[in-house]
Design a protein that fits this description.
single chain; M1 Pyruvate Kinase, Domain 3; 33% strand
Length: 224
Amino acid sequence: MNVAELWRYPVKTMAGERLTRVAVTSLGLEGDRVVHVEDARGHFVTSRTHPRFLGHKGTLSTSGDVLVDGRAWESAEVAADVMSIAGPDATLERFEGPERFDVLPLLVATDGAIAAFGHDGRRLRPNIIIGGVDGLEERAWPGACLRIGAVLIGVQDLRGRCIMTSFDPDTQKQDKSITKGIYERFEGTLALNCFVIEPGTISVGDPVALVRGRRCADAHEAAE
């Protein structure tokens, strides 16, 4: 197995950027989901209810600044785009606490499961796609760990999927049958909720090993 793809989403709920190399911290990929859309009550606003956000792309500049469609995320132009989608009280906010993640800091998918899914893997919004996996083998991985060089990742459980999977990542056109199919064929779950045990740096092409053992078991017990 190997790292086939790496994806980071500097602005939560917007389209992300494909990477070749990235640092993995205790809170996932460096720079992932560090900016989010917020309403007047301080609640996250996401593409579940405002899918037009998927038509905008968040990236990091070479100096580490968050950009939206190549523009500074704090700019008036970006603020106007956000308000046009989510209303006059919607703002972009920077927040780097663990609460910015829907479940856990990392979402790992496999090429075998994506092939079984039969649709664009971007609908699953993974951080890491692992290649060389047969079929739905990932469904037996919860409780195990993934070793990628110096990085050790704990696999907690399968990710329950929401209506965001129904939106085409390029056109934002909705097809609810895709989400329905996940529930009919995969019990509503695809890809893996994961957490970081040992940080480091990973690159596309790095070998990946599925491991079990005392270090992995201890980390899972500590995470419970």
